[in-house]
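[Meeting: bench + compute handoff]

Bench side (C.D.) handed over the final construct sequence. Compute side (W.E.) agreed to return the predicted structure before the next meeting so the bench team could plan truncations. Sequence as handed over:
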Amino acid sequence: MSKVWFVTGSSRGLGRAFVEAALERGDRVAATARSTASLQDLAAEYGDAVLPLAMDVTDKAAVADAVEQAVAHFGRLDVVVNNAGYAQVGAVEELTEQDLRDQMETNLFGAVWVVQSVLPQLRAQGSGHIIQLSSAAGLVAMPLGGAYHASKWALEGLNEALAAEVAPFGIKVTIIEPGGFATRNGKNPDPLDNGHMATAHPAYVPLRQQLAGAMKGQPAGDPAAAAQALLTLVDLDRPPLRVLWGLGFYPMLQKVYAERLQNWADWQDLSLAAQGELTVQG
């Protein structure tokens, strides 16, 4: 049986690849983007199987309206992909209040508005699968990514809680944690040239130069392959809560999590002292 998808951030990158893969196998898709101009070729090719919807995820009312239109058009929703987002770059000291608020409005609140809008329909159906695009940046933090990391770490916790809340209604949740993917002309996006760069403070210029050097030659995954992996994922009866996509991140995360566990173990005396159960000698 074909599935009905609701995908945010469908105009390019992974979102566009997801939409194309779903349509190619005969599924139907409500494809949302801030402008539907980039989706008209899909409408011309797939007709009523695709519903292009103009929607900014930061506009709560617009999100609710888009979901209502999708349900009216297709009659149900089976797969909801929260993909829209961007990466704010800048040292924590460099970030303006607006930088940080804008990052959270899109990456975090936008995802919340989608989830809140689709849940009544999914509950009524007794089924559905919410896919949250997080990032390897939701698992480990690096310099100059404080705002982006904050948004993705928040999404990790939010969706883990959501998964437990909606499981009794037959609704599944999966958090996808991609590494680098070739979403810009066959290459990884350049974090220092993405249109969301905080004004540089002289103290952090060397750090920016280091980041630029480190990003050169980074392996980039294939969005089309990622889309096929997503098709496999949404067809599973018991999908995972989390899945890591990309090259090279699993060994790094093994090291990071081992270090965290060791750090907690090393400081157990202080942890017990904080509870009044042990006196620590300075």
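W.E. noted at the follow-up: DSSP finds nine helices and seven strands in the chain. C.D. will use this when planning the next construct.
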